[in-house]
Amino acid sequence: MLSDFNYLTFTHLASLEVGHHFYWQVGNLKLHGQVFLTSWFVIALLLVASFLATKNIQRIPGGMQNFMEYVLEFIQGLAKNQLGEKEYRPWVPFIGTLFLFIFVSNWSGALIPWRVIELPEGELAAPTNDINTTVALALLTSLAYFYAGFSKRGLGYFRKYIEPTPVLLPIAILEDFTKPLSLSFRLFGNILADELVVGVLVLLVPLFVPLPIMALGLFTSAIQALVFATLAAAYIHEAMEGHGGEEHHEEHG
């Protein structure tokens, strides 16, 4: 039988208050303080890992250097598969930052008992458990593929809105709104749902039943990071691919 302390701990972990936040007042702005705190924690973890991997670089890597080189190769492969051999290199930092931040954020929500830490109000959770974070990441992705298309094709990028016929202009504009919406709500919904399910199971059956669900949550959290980064790379490729077609047409025209 669980001790009173363990029971109270599990109950606190499972007490979910959706929409209840800890705010910082900065002038006339209200900032979600808990999102900044957990985001800074994730960023600090990534910075520490990068420092440990690069502080003493060896020709034959080992330890953290070997692990981070594997991560870099994985991200390079992801970007190359979506963007192609000639285009992927400049976008590795952006795609890698998205993937690593989302991956570590998701896992922090699954592995770290944030709710044990008391706040004046609200509670700590994974950064990606907040819609503001996922929307911000999605908008950054939108800016990235607009920049990619415009820098690669110039004003010709905007021809996509009226090709093959100007009648499709409203649909093309709507697509630019649905892409960040789908990215943000997919990530937010999956992470929030996972934490809600684990929280409810911990409250109802606080011993062994939640463990397989938590393991599944780690897997799905990793998949969500991969899906977000892959779609971001695909959108960037889609924005640039018209250049290759026009160039090919001009060479053979």
Automatic annotation (TrEMBL):
This is ATP synthase subunit a. InterPro entries: ATP_syn_F0_a_bact/chloroplast, ATP_synth_F0_asu, ATP_synth_F0_asu_AS, F0_ATP_A_sf. Key component of the proton channel; it plays a direct role in the translocation of protons across the membrane. The keyword Disulfide bond does not apply. Belongs to the ATPase A chain family. Gene3D superfamilies: ATP synthase, F0 complex, subunit A (1.20.120.220). The chain crosses the membrane at residues 35-54, 91-111, 131-150, 187-209, 215-236. It comes from the Bacteria. The keyword Thylakoid applies. It is found in: Cell membrane; Cellular thylakoid membrane; Membrane. Coiled coil: none annotated. Keywords: ATP synthesis, CF(0), Hydrogen ion transport, Ion transport, Membrane, Thylakoid, Transmembrane, Transmembrane helix, Transport. It is a multi-pass membrane protein. Its main location: membrane.
